[in-house]
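User: I would dearly like some help making sense of a protein record. I have put the entry right below:
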Amino acid sequence: MNNKRNRGGRRVVERKRKNPKLDPATNRYSVNFSSEEYVRFLKMFDRSGMTSKLAFIKARIFGEPFHVVTFDKSQHEYYAKLSDFHAQFCMVGNNYNQTLKELKCHFSEHRAMALVCKLEKYMMQLVQIHYCPRKSVNILAKLHILSGLTIV
């Protein structure tokens, strides 16, 4: 048992210490920047994408490569819209199958065939939009009439 007591009579608890580092970083340097240099430093730091200024400074001193991470919002928005369009295009196949099923159930054979022919015509236009993007503007203007039509 530990019988050591301090001056107030309380027991002294020995604390466990962390394992010492093999090569502790004890050498320190201080750098002073002018306001212009500090703004330039912050711009370089932001462009690097690093999260620690210490790691950034060490990398610059010891000559590690300087990586610049750029993010172009216009490309990101274009990619998001293109992905959304592709997802909608993929959903058309599902809607097409559901539509054919409902036509078969609720209409006579002659009327269903007439509606299927119209649907095939619109599907061919969508395929043309997908494979010929230059012509898609004219076709989309024609299909604008269908924008109020909702297929569930």
About this structure: Confidence is low (pLDDT under 50) at residues 145-152. The CA atoms of residues 24 and 77 lie 47 Å apart.
